[in-house]
TrEMBL record:
Residues 43-324 form the DUF222 domain. InterPro entries: DUF222, HNH_nuc. This is DUF222 domain-containing protein. CDD domains: HNHc. It holds the Pfam family DUF222. Residues 395-420 are annotated as: Disordered.
Length: 420
C-alpha cells in the first residue's frame, strides 16, 4: 500500500495534487463498507471533499483559459480541450468553463465553495445565472441567490429564479420591471442550444430590438399559412421558415443524402446524412425531392476527381465526395462539421507532396488546417481500410510522422511519401 505523507503548510500545489490522486486511487480500489448508515455518512463527507476538489480544479481551468494555453496544444477552445482531453460531456464542459470564467466575480460563492460550505450544484447554478450580467447586477444576483441557498431552496428552484434574475433584482430594488415581451436588460442577443437524445435540438434565447426586427422582417412573411389546408400552428411554421432561411431556400439547399439507388426508387433500406445520422427510407426520398438529387459518383467521366499538381483548389464535385466521407473535421475529437471545414492536402500541397487528388485530400476545420501547416510535426496521420484519413494531435515538443512515428522534415517530402 502506498504511503502518503504531506506537510500541508509547505507542500507545493503539485505535491498536494499528487497526494489527492493517490488517496482517490486507494479509495476507488476499496470495497464499500457493508453498513448502509456508514456509507451514507461517507458519501456525504466525500461529496463535500469532491466539491472542494472541483473548486480547485476550476481555478486551474480559469488560468488555462485566460492564458490560451490549449491553443498551443492544438485545441481551438478550452471547452474543446475539456471535452476531448478530459472526456467530459459537452454540457459538463460548458458548466465547468462558465464556473472558471465567473469565479473572479463571485467572490462569496468561490469562498464558500472552496471551504466546503457550498455544493458544486449551487455554485454552477449561480455562475450560469450571472454569466450575462454586468458587474453591478452580478453582485446583486449573487446575494439574492445565496440568500435562497441559505433558506434551503433546492438547486432547481435557485436555477428557476436565476433564469429571471433581472426581474428579481428589479423587484428587490423597487425599480420598474421590464414588461413581458420587451427588452429584459441584456446588452446583446443570445441563443442557447441543447441537443436531445434523438438528434433533435432545444433552442431558447433572446433578441434585442434590432435583431428582433430582422427576425420579424425575414421570417414573418415565410411563416404565414401556406393555404387554407395548412394545419401547422405559428410555432411550427416559424421553425419551417427558419430552416428554409438557414439552408438558403429550396434551390440553394446543400443536403446530401447517401443512400442506395434502390432506396431512392422505393426500397426500404435506410439512408444517412453526411454527419452519419441514419434516416428512414421514406424521409430520405422526401429530402431528395425537396433539395434536388445530386449524384455522388466515384467513377471516370462523371466528376473530375483527379486534378494532379496543376490545380490548387478542389472542385465542387470533390468537396461533395469529401463531405460524404468526413462528417466532421479529420482531427480526432474535433466536432466541427465537415460541411463547415476546409479541404486539406494531407501531405501539404505547398511542398509539392500532395496533388489535388481525392485520395490525397481530407477536411479539417479552419483552426486545425492552420495548426497543421504551422506545426506539421505535431500531427500524426493515419488512414483506415476504407481510405479515410484521421489526424491525432501530439503534445508540444513531440514531433512525429505518419503512423511510424518518424520525424517530419519540413521543406522536403516526408518519409512515407519518398518511396512513391
Amino acid at each position: 500500500m502506498e504511503r502518503v505523507a504531506v506537510d500541508l503548510a509547505v507542500a507545493s500545489t503539485m505535491e498536494l495534487v499528487n497526494a489527492a490522486s493517490a488517496i482517490a486511487a486507494e479509495l476507488a480500489r476499496r470495497e464499500p463498507p457493508e453498513s448502509a448508515a456508514a456509507c451514507l455518512e461517507l458519501t456525504e463527507a466525500l461529496s463535500t471533499a469532491n466539491d472542494m476538489n472541483e473548486a480547485a480544479l476550476t481555478g486551474f481551468v480559469s488560468v488555462v483559459d485566460a492564458g490560451r494555453e490549449v491553443q498551443r496544444w492544438g485545441f481551438p477552445s478550452t471547452q474543446s480541450w475539456l471535452r476531448n482531453r478530459l472526456g467530459m460531456r459537452d454540457a459538463r464542459a460548458k458548466e465547468r468553463l462558465v464556473l472558471a470564467r465567473q469565479r473572479h466575480r463571485l467572490t462569496e460563492v468561490t469562498g464558500r465553495w472552496s471551504a466546503g460550505d457550498l455544493p458544486l450544484g449551487y455554485a454552477a447554478t449561480i455562475a450560469g445565472a450571472v454569466a450575462r450580467l454586468d458587474d453591478e447586477d452580478c453582485a446583486a444576483a449573487e446575494k439574492i441567490l445565496l440568500g435562497m441557498v441559505d433558506q434551503d431552496f433546492s438547486a432547481g428552484k435557485v436555477a428557476s429564479f436565476g433564469r429571471r434574475i433581472r426581474d428579481v433584482i428589479a423587484e428587490r430594488d423597487g425599480t420598474e420591471p421590464a414588461p413581458d415581451g420587451a427588452q429584459r436588460g441584456y446588452d446583446r442577443s443570445w441563443i442557447d442550444s441543447t441537443r436531445s437524445l434523438d438528434g433533435g435540438r432545444y433552442i431558447k434565447g433572446w433578441l434585442n430590438a434590432e435583431d428582433a426586427a430582422i427576425w420579424d422582417g425575414t421570417l414573418g412573411p415565410l411563416a404565414k399559412p401556406a393555404g387554407s389546408d395548412d394545419r401547422r400552428d405559428l410555432s411550427e411554421r416559424t421553425a419551417a421558415a427558419l430552416s428554409s432561411v438557414l439552408s438558403g431556400g429550396h434551390k440553394a439547399t446543400k443536403v446530401t443524402v447517401i443512400c442506395d439507388l434502390d432506396t431512392l426508387t422505393g426500397g426500404t433500406a435506410p439512408g444517412r446524412l453526411t454527419d452519419g445520422t441514419p434516416i428512414p427510407a421514406e424521409q430520405a426520398r422526401r429530402i431528395a425531392l425537396a433539395a434536388g438529387v445530386s449524384p455522388l459518383l466515384l467513377g471516370r467521366g462523371h466528376v473530375p476527381l483527379y486534378l494532379g499538381y496543376r490545380e490548387r483548389f478542389a472542385t465542387p464535385g470533390q468537396r461533395r465526395v469529401l463531405e460524404a466521407l468526413y462528417p466532421t473535421c479529420a482531427v480526432v475529437g474535433c466536432e466541427v462539421p465537415g460541411t463547415l471545414s476546409e479541404v486539406d492536402h494531407v501531405n501539404g500541397w505547398a511542398l509539392g507532396n500532395s496533388p489535388t487528388d481525392i485520395d490525397q485530400l481530407t477536411l479539417t476545420c479552419g483552426f486545425h488546417n492552420r495548426y497543421k501547416a504551422a506545426h506539421p510535426g505535431r500531427i500524426t496521420v493515419r488512414r483506415d481500410t476504407e481510405g479515410r484519413y484521421s489526424y491525432r494531435l501530439q503534445q508540444p515538443g513531440t514531433d512525429v510522422g505518419r503512423e511510424t512515428g518518424t520525424p517530419i522534415a519540413v521543406g522536403r517530402p516526408p518519409p512515407w511519401n519518398q518511396a512513391a
